[in-house]
Amino acid sequence: MAAPDEDAYDVVVVGGGPAGEVVADRIVRSGLTAVVVEAEAVGGECSYRACVPSKALLRPGAARAEARSVDGARQAVTAALDPARVLARRDRFTGRGDDTGQADWLDGAGIALVRGHGRLAGERRVEVTAPDGTVRTLRARRAVVVCTGTEPALPPVEGLDRIGVWTNRQATTADAVPARLVVIGGGVVACEMATAWRSLGASATLLVRDRALLTGWEPCAGEEVTRGLSDLGVRIRFGVSAVRVARDETTRTVTVETDDGTALVCDEVLAAVGRRPRTADLGLETVGLPVRDWLPVDDTCRVTAGVDGDWLYAVGDVNRRAPLTHMAKYQARACAAAIVERAAGRPAVTGGRQRWSAEADRFAVPQAVFTRPEVASVGLTERAAREAGLAVRTVEYRIDDVAGAALHADDYRGLAKLVVDETRGVVVGCTLTGPMATELIHTATVAIVGEVPLERLWHAVPAFPTVSEVWLRLLEAYGL
Ligand SMILES: Cc1cc2nc3c(=O)[nH]c(=O)nc-3n(C[C@H](O)[C@H](O)[C@H](O)COP(=O)(O)OP(=O)(O)OC[C@H]3O[C@@H](n4cnc5c(N)ncnc54)[C@H](O)[C@@H]3O)c2cc1C
Ligand SMILES: NC(=O)c1ccc[n+]([C@@H]2O[C@H](COP(=O)([O-])OP(=O)(O)OC[C@H]3O[C@@H](n4cnc5c(N)ncnc54)[C@H](O)[C@@H]3O)[C@@H](O)[C@H]2O)c1
Fold it and tell me: What is the ipTM of this complex?
């Protein structure tokens, strides 16, 4: 029984981003009750300050470039982008942070919403501090699911905390195009946001600590994005780190000093150097867990580090397994299924591709990056496959040599790389660059998850003349 000052639900979800929304939805659909605790806006970082606004900022430049890549259409598209309209279109997707629509959706789905900052208060209890300071305790009969996501990490650069540095939040919500943008980082956010703001007229410089962009990907992905950004007029300085920044109070300009002894003047600095977990003020110490850390989980998203019982789960970015919205939602579906199984007295054993087992996190995470050219990947890189001890063979094919690609764009340029596990005769990794790479990658995801033998994939005939015909060419290059 709940104490008089407690509200009891089967599942208490802390954080109403993509992960939290989907956990709660699947729980309620199964007949159990769920409440979502949200400190800012229902929909999370993804809806208002990450995926959605960033893709809304990128799409107009991509559409323009696509039209201009076909002779006859090119001549019809001569003007630059209209920044005011692009920003207004972005705002139509984000509602400028107004979450009424998503809160109504929760209501319609039968999910309770409690606004405020959630904090664990011992086993199965979550204390919520509302914006007006009142505190309420929620009790979970079955499970507490932590879906609090991440916040931007900041590089150790002197003065960064005093210049009003941009993180993903400002980079996706700004109302004006900065004349000069300096981006620290060479990962996905840096590449996408430099593309977006450069397309809208900003001059952009990337300060990349490493010697390549998109490290961790197949090298061809970083190389193609480097070429694409350079063609767009983005300056990229490899092997360079910012050491000191300062904003001039009169001119409002920022001077960025770098470790090679040079200085750059700009209007805004975007820090895009990765993420850290939103676990600092989550009451983890009340259940014996270290504060500020990522939450390691098993394939059902049950927290593995020293918590007794089957009651604490962590889904989405906060568990660090695959920090992407689609994987957060996949984990959410698995986690909810596991909670429902266990509520029914069944153990929800993992492995064997059960609905409650988010095992694709480990071998089939698709990622789509909306730079120009687009790059997309799924599964293992060649290097990761070799490190895993697989008998690796790779196949590469230039997508521009496919008839459908040449018809699609006069200057089509793209590359496909497959990583094959020779022992099993199946694809374990795929990287694509070029127009529509982000759409084409799902075929590879199906091949990898389905463990389709190449001999059988041979019978999946791509239509002529599509870019997908690259699959036939890859299999021919493999020797079929
Ligand atoms: C610029 C950018 C672009 C991106 N683009 C893409 C993309 O195109 N595709 C893609 O798949 N991924 C993309 N991502 C990653 C994606 O945003 C995340 O993977 C996704 O948001 C993770 O969802 P989540 O629910 O785990 O966390 P979040 O979306 O961060 O949601 C967490 C929620 O929890 C709330 N919260 C936190 N702490 C508490 C608390 N103590 N109490 C109550 N509420 C709390 C927060 O307010 C927030 O609403 C992008 C990320 C960035 C930074
Ligand atoms: N299209 C998409 O799917 C998409 C788009 C944007 C972001 N995301 C997600 O958001 C996550 C975060 O993106 P991100 O770009 O911030 O992180 P990231 O991990 O992709 O890249 C971080 C970059 O910062 C560099 N770096 C790290 N510490 C540094 C330091 N101290 N000084 C200078 N450089 C440093 C790294 O070398 C790397 O180049 C990604 O992992 C991805 O999952 C996805």
Answer: 0.99
